[in-house]
Amino acid sequence: MPAPLFLSGSCKICGLQTTGRHFGVMSCRSCAAFFRRAAGSEKRKIECPIGNCEIFGGGRFQCKRCRLKKCYEAGMDVKKFQNNRDLISCSSNFSKRQNFIASSPQSLSNFLGRPSFILCCEPDKATFSNTVIDVTYLVNKTNWIFHQPPSINCRPYRYQNSLEKLAFSLDELRTKHPDQKIMQLRRMGKEESMYILEQSFLRAVEWFSNFSEFQELEDYIKLEIIKTAWFGWIRLEKLSETADYQRKQIFPEDVHMLGNDTCLEYGNFEIDLSWCTDYSMEQLMFYIPPQEEQNCRQCVQDLIDLSLTNIEVNFMLLQVSLSQAGKRCQGKVLEACEKLMQTQADHLHDYYVNKMKQHNYSGRLTKMLKVIRQLEEDIRNRTELNKLARVFNVIRLEFSHPEMFDVH
């Protein structure tokens, strides 16, 4: 470690004790602050009529003009001013907040371009060209998959229960193509969105097809469950996969899984929504709230801290997807979902007590359910935003099966 630096001597401007080098000259703090104020002023400089006044005398500084002149003569340089060093005013969050406050509020009238008195009334001449997405082929493929034998039935392994079988099924899905590299997306447009949508939905379908008790349900109940449960399932599945990669230090903290073989880095990708809206990204910020990214990061961190086993991950997937499907569909679907969740809760209890030898697992289960509740809250918020977007024609999208995309 180098020896400490001791500064001594007198200020080159006023002769008082120096405090260090300021703007290129050994000076006191008072002269440094004076030069920062005076040299940065845009007022017209007036020469001192005497021209050689004493800088410091009688306990006070005498002539400002001569003092500034001596600062320049000593070598002080305005190019060495460092602006925006205030920790509050220069922070990006503070700047963004100030810009937001300074700008005029974006009312619905301004946003939609219609006066407030006809805000909820569409003019007769107004026409909207929606992008129609036909997903009938996905529904048909789902019916076909559900009528096929489970993909892991041929494995020479004896499963203790359906929860253990689902855990093995998820591992199979994640390692189906071990040589396939994960591609980082730099742009999200229509083509990328449709590709990931199809991948995600069919992945959830294949996982549910290996769920023994689920396959015993009537066909229409199975279809209703998968159409309403897939989004919550894929959301948690991708978050848990991201947490697994980050825990193993394969991904940095800003990279998240998106599809089966794709990922994205927050702050390093472009979103193109021109195919489904007439509004700019700045106008759509209400539709993509900043806390959504923050919630995803927090959820991933919670999953990393929990370091879940495969059984626990699959129990959480069942909990979030079946709970969502039951609440939305009600009736026989709700009854079936509650029965399935109770069965899997019994399997989880058996896993903790008999396999993990952990009789007191309530604390861990509480943390798992906390992650699920946060995810369910995010899904509810997304549903409300989608309703607003449809009412005011913000998003020009129309699906052949709209019940599948209420929260997408």
Automatic annotation (TrEMBL):
GO terms for molecular function: DNA-binding transcription factor activity; RNA polymerase II cis-regulatory region sequence-specific DNA binding; zinc ion binding. It is found in: Nucleus. Its main location: nucleus. GO terms for cellular component: nucleus. Residues 158-408 form the NR LBD domain. Transmembrane segments: none annotated. Keywords: DNA-binding, Metal-binding, Nucleus, Receptor, Transcription, Transcription regulation, Zinc, Zinc-finger. Residues 8-83 form the Nuclear receptor domain. The keyword Nucleus applies. InterPro entries: C.elegans_Orphan_NR, HNF4-like_DBD, NHR-like_dom_sf, Nucl_hrmn_rcpt_lig-bd, Znf_hrmn_rcpt, Znf_NHR/GATA. It comes from the Eukaryota. Signal peptide: none annotated. The keyword Transcription regulation applies. Belongs to the nuclear hormone receptor family. This is Nuclear Hormone Receptor family.
